[in-house]
Amino acid sequence: MRIVILTGAGVSAESGLGTFRDKDGLWTRYDLAEVATPEGFARDPAKVHDFYNARRANAQSATHNAAHAALCRLQASAHDVMLVTQNVDSLHEQAGSRDVVHMHGALSGALCARCGDRWTAPLAMSPTDLCPSCAAPATRPDIVWFGEMPYHMDAIHAALLDADLFVAIGTSGTVYPAAGFVDIADGAGADTLELNLEPSEARSAFADARYGPASEIVPAWVD
Ligand code: BV8
């Protein structure tokens, strides 16, 4: 069976990484326009680096949970699985998953806004860091901000059109284009399943759903 999995912040919540839109979520404490847009970065790069430096430190001390481990087992099964994540942490990789499609980038990456070179981010980035290729002081986290094009969209789109099953796990279904994947897969004839703590905004688009903490419902579904 060809399966496309889309994960969101809910899959890492039990690893201690905060979600975005839940009570006490990141976007209730930070202004998204200031820290997660190219315009915000242009206005105050130090503030944006501080935001991502803190999240990078948090993510580095986090441990994957039973949901990440179950998805790794699914990838190792006979099924053909594309694992797409909106998360910028590396907990799927820490659990052993390979070829994870990071559509919103990764905290572990640095990107030169001038020449496009990419390299491994240091734990703390700063506006004075120079690009190792072109020496421009234009380094930024390799994160897809609002208003920017998410990565790997052609490959994801092709997999959705070819999928037998699309499963969204721990995502609120509010950020596009990821929120529209269920409609693409459904339109192409795939079965669709939502695994989440509670019904998401996109619940009505899914044929089936199971609710509870990801560390319980994902292993129960996989095994
Ligand atoms: C684009 C940065 C096209 C990384 C992120 C109006 C105005 C402006 C823009 C738009 C607009 N309308 C549409 C848009 C486009 C915009 C968008 O969708 N905006 C929304 C908010 C309206 N999208 C974009 O800009 C995207 N780009 O469209 O490009 C384009 C075309 C032409 C030219 C240029 C571009 C770019 C989107 C990427 C944004 N980057 N963040 C970072 O700092 O991390 S998005 C951010 O939201 C995160 O990446 C996150 O992954 C993503 C999705 O959130 P979720 O993962 O779903 O997290 P959330 O907190 O919302 O939900 C958690 C869920 O888990 C909940 O349902 C909860 O119940 C559940 N849960 C909690 N605990 C558990 C659990 N489930 C299970 N177990 C648990 N224990």
UniProtKB/TrEMBL annotation:
Binds 1 zinc ion per subunit. Its EC number is 2.3.1.286. 2 residues (Tyr-52 and Arg-55) present in a large hydrophobic pocket are probably involved in substrate specificity. They are important for desuccinylation activity, but dispensable for deacetylation activity. The gene is cobB. It is found in: Cytoplasm. It catalyses: N(6)-succinyl-L-lysyl-[protein] + NAD(+) + H2O = 2''-O-succinyl-ADP-D-ribose + nicotinamide + L-lysyl-[protein]; N(6)-acetyl-L-lysyl-[protein] + NAD(+) + H2O = 2''-O-acetyl-ADP-D-ribose + nicotinamide + L-lysyl-[protein]. The active site is at 104 (proton acceptor). It comes from Cognatiyoonia koreensis. Pfam families: SIR2. The lineage of its organism: Bacteria, Pseudomonadati, Pseudomonadota, Alphaproteobacteria, Rhodobacterales. Keywords: Cytoplasm, Metal-binding, NAD, Transferase, Zinc. This is NAD-dependent protein deacylase. GO terms for cellular component: cytoplasm. Its cofactor is Zn(2+). Its main location: cytoplasm. Belongs to the sirtuin family. Class III subfamily. NAD-dependent lysine deacetylase and desuccinylase that specifically removes acetyl and succinyl groups on target proteins. Modulates the activities of several proteins which are inactive in their acylated form. Substrate binds at residues 52, 55. GO terms for molecular function: histone deacetylase activity, NAD-dependent; NAD+ binding; protein-malonyllysine demalonylase activity; protein-succinyllysine desuccinylase activity; zinc ion binding.
